[in-house]
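Consider this record:
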Amino acid sequence: MLDEIDHVAIAVNDLDAAITFYRNTFGVEVEHREFIASDRVEEAMLKVGTSYIQLLFPTAPDSPIAKFLEKRGEGIHHVGYRVTDCKAALERAKAEGVAVLDEEPRHGSRGTTVAFIHPKGALGTLIELVQQ
């Protein structure tokens, strides 16, 4: 059901500094930047092959990314996998007894449909299912 890796999300303390690091160190440019009000984050998507590095910066002190940064510091937050049908992939995970954060798919950035799988049910990794 997983088609390919859509993105690797990295929580950062300074979005502009992180963008500068990737530009200067690896020659990667921002392809998409968006404020996601529902998640209280600003993201910058940097294209790498057919996938992305998603830099995530909290826009509120109580956002999940702010809490992550406070607890763990900067680093990998989750892996996003492309799927053809987000609802079907989510239902399959739930049928297998996997803990989920989203009971139903929801709108994501770039016009995608997304759903998150809880790390407790996925070998310690927060997983995002991404349907384009």
Q: What stands out?
A: Residues 2-131 form a domain with the 2,3-Dihydroxybiphenyl 1,2-Dioxygenase; domain 1 fold (CATH 3.10.180.10). The longest helix spans residues 15-26. The chain has one domain: 2-131.
